[in-house]
Design brief:
Layout (H helix, E strand, L loop, with lengths): L2 H5 L13 E3 L4 H4 L8 E7 L2 E9 H8 L21 H4 L13 H11 L3 E5 L5 E6 H14 L1
Parallel strand pairs: 1-2
Antiparallel strand pairs: 2-3, 4-5
Length: about 150
């Protein structure tokens, strides 16, 4: 693949519209509908702040739904529930991010190392500007390959 592909900037391929976002205080019954049409939802500080503080993925929900015994790690009760609480209660707090000036190579390396398929694209204050998913990168790869 030509170096142009690896050196392309995230800002050129990221999705900027229709990003699934919900505030951390949103009740869980407002979160779940996102996951019927999306694989994830980014969690922000609040209605007035789009600073990314978490993510909820289908995998997070699967972990909750598949727990028949109500236990989590080391036999301790899993305090998360899908019938009460807020987005903050079930979100993953460690969010791996990227910025718009990073390259496809940077994003792919981060995705591979972290075992994830999506990254929020944020500014220096962690405010979400868009997202890049493996699908966006694959689409760019196909476009470049067709030009060869």
């Amino acid at each position: 693949m030509p170096p142009k592909f690896w050196d392309a900037k995230i800002e050129d391929i990221m999705q900027k519209k229709d990003i699934p976002i919900i505030e951390r205080s949103a009740p869980i019954d407002r979160v779940l509908p996102f996951l019927t049409t999306k694989t994830h939802v980014w969690v922000t500080e609040g209605k007035r702040s789009e600073k990314v503080v978490g993510v909820i993925t289908e995998h997070d929900i699967l972990s909750i739904l598949a727990s028949k015994t109500g236990t989590h790690m080391f036999g301790l009760p899993d305090m998360r529930s899908l019938d009460k609480g807020s987005a903050e209660d079930i979100m993953t707090k460690r969010v791996v991010k990227c910025n718009p000036s990073e390259t496809i190579e940077d994003a792919l390396d981060r995705m591979r190392v972290e075992g994830i398929r999506r990254l929020p694209v944020v500014d220096d204050n962690d405010v979400i500007l868009g997202e890049v998913r493996l699908w966006h990168i694959l689409k760019k790869f196909i476009a470049v390959a067709k030009k060869k």
